[in-house]
Design goal:
The protein is built from 17 helices and 8 strands. The chain is an alpha/beta fold. The chain is globular.
Length: 343
């Protein structure tokens, strides 16, 4: 079902095979962000760009295999869509990869970058950089189980293991023994103790040159860069040296930046002319979700930054923040909030 609908979506948006061959699917993506990139966020971001590769929040193998919720639910319009997994048991990861393939995901990504204590206690995330043989085994198990692309998102180092040689050994092992051909590199090392996850996204210095050198030393691998990227100008600069760029917090807090991705990075028409058109495109989705019992605020919380940097942006944020969480709030809240901008 997913494959048929995706084929139709590609035809409708003009993404033909020639374009798909011209540009890597990883040319531009939005990072997996816990508590942010849920299905409502991804549907919203998709209205702004048809070509951006979207990632789920990290989902643990334990949640997928033993949890009661449907952690793989998504809307077909979210394609291209990758599932990020957290785990370190090859068999469990292989089972989850099979689930992802059955549900129509376009890629499975292994998290080797999250530094939180909770993640470390589960023996996954950035601490796995110290266990390159295990990571290779995890990738190999997933690749054997499914035909989907299996990718890795990692850091440039952890704690005192932050030399370039350490990074090269990790990449070489996971590529050669695991068969991974695609890596997303967060260009900061991670401190596994002493810094919070938020601090780990800001305090360790960025080292883009190290990622550039990695591409020179591993030219056959597809390497994407992540960390501190806030403009499409910077994105284009990175694309001169690397295969792709992953944008994180900027894409969430200033989603309007995605409205120019298709034209500026893929040479295609942008899907909608302005932010007001994005809201119009979201209204049918919101109505459907409200009828199923979803609270308006669960959707609109992802839309607060839509008018970032534009006149009326503060009024838009304030009105949504004050009214979207009220009992019985409906789509009329967005219409009223939009009037705060258009005056």
């Amino acid at each position: 079902m997913h494959e048929n609908k995706e084929s139709l979506n590609l035809q409708q948006t003009g993404i033909n095979s020639g374009v798909a061959q011209k540009y890597s699917p990883h040319r531009f993506s939005v990072a997996p962000m816990l508590d942010w990139t849920d299905r409502h966020c991804r549907y919203f971001l998709r209205q702004l760009s048809r070509r951006t590769l979207l990632y789920t929040e990290m989902v643990t193998t334990g949640a997928l295999l033993h949890g009661k919720g449907d952690y793989l639910a998504y809307n077909d319009a979210e394609h291209p869509l990758a599932l990020q997994l957290g785990g370190s048991e090859p068999d469990a990861l292989a089972r989850c990869a099979k689930m992802a393939q059955a549900r129509g995901y376009d890629e499975v990504n292994l998290n080797v970058g999250c530094p939180s204590d909770r993640v470390q206690n589960g023996r996954f995330g950035a601490c796995l950089m110290a266990e390159k043989e295990l990571v290779a085994a995890c990738i190999a198990a997933m690749r054997e189980a499914v035909s989907l692309p299996i990718t890795v998102k990692t850091r440039i180092g952890i704690d005192e293991q932050d030399s370039y040689a350490f990074l090269c050994e990790f990449i070489d092992t996971v590529a050669a023994r695991g068969g991974c051909q695609t890596f997303i590199i967060h260009a900061r090392k991670a401190w596994l103790s002493g810094l919070s996850p938020k601090e780990n996204r800001e305090i360790p210095p960025l080292d883009y040159d190290r990622v550039y050198q990695l591409k020179r030393d591993f030219p056959s691998l597809r390497l994407m860069i992540n960390g501190g990227i806030t403009t499409l100008h910077d994105t284009r600069e990175h694309l001169q040296r690397l295969d792709g760029v992953m944008m994180g917090r900027e894409a969430y807090q200033n989603p309007g930046i995605l409205a120019r991705v298709d034209s500026e990075l893929f040479g295609e028409a942008d899907p909608l002319p302005n932010q007001a058109a994005v809201i119009d495109a979201m209204l049918p989705y919101i109505e459907r979700k409200l009828s199923c019992g979803t609270a308006l605020g669960h959707i609109t919380r992802h839309m607060l930054g839509l008018f970032q940097g534009m006149p009326g942006a503060r009024q838009w944020r304030r009105y949504l923040s004050e009214h979207a969480h009220r009992p019985g709030a409906g789509a009329e809240v967005l219409i009223k909030a939009l009037s705060c901008v258009q005056h």
